[in-house]
Amino acid sequence: MTALANLKFVVAKRATAQTPTQQRRNKLSTKLFEQMQLARAQAEGRVYAPTKFKSVKDAETGERRSIETAKKVKQWWWKTADGKLNLSIRYGAKVIEISKGKNAIELSSVDELLPTLEIVKQAVEEGSLDAQIDAVSNKLRSGFKK
After folding, report:
1. Pfam families this protein is in (predicted)?
2. Would residue 107 count as lying in a domain?
């Protein structure tokens, strides 16, 4: 009992399931984190290759097993003709319209990329882009309906 005397005991209640809005925020926040990792890796001159587990069926035995494969991460930024960078924020395959009629953020150099991604990630976590995320999510969801 002396080992347990050093611990602090509390009455805890587990949080209920997340709201759909919070789930969408978390999904976009995770993707923004991947973009930040990709930008850091490119700045340092290395390759960013995250892995994921894929379920495969063995042809001979017929049993399923998990294998680790490389995950494809497509960068959300590109260089324009005038030498600047454009950064679009994506939710799934859809580009989020951040401001009315505008779907990209213009950056003067690659050095601004990481701070901009961090600002957008913070805005997503605060809920500033909830309306835009919801609109894109509904558009994406409507593509799955028959």
Report:
1. DUF6641 (PF20346)
2. yes
User: 25 is in which domain, residue-wise?
Assistant: 19-142
**pTM for this one?**
0.79
> Is residue 52 included in any domain, yes or no?
yes
What is the SS3 assignment for 43-103? Answer: HHCCCCCCEEEEEEECCCCCCEEEEEEECCCCCCEEECCCCCEEECCEECCEECCCECCEC
**Does some domain include residue 59?**
yes
User: CB under 8 Å, gap of 24 or more: what pairs does 130-139 form?
Assistant: 130/21, 130/24, 130/25, 132/96, 132/97, 132/98, 133/21, 133/24, 133/25, 133/28, 133/91, 133/96, 134/21, 134/24, 135/97, 136/91, 136/92, 136/94, 136/95, 136/96, 136/97, 137/24, 137/91, 139/94
Contact 92, 129 (CB under 8 A): no
Domain membership of residue 3 (yes or no) is no
Give the chain's domain count.
Answer: 1
pLDDT tens for 66-111 read 999 999 999 999 999 999 999 999 998 889 998 888 999 999 999 9
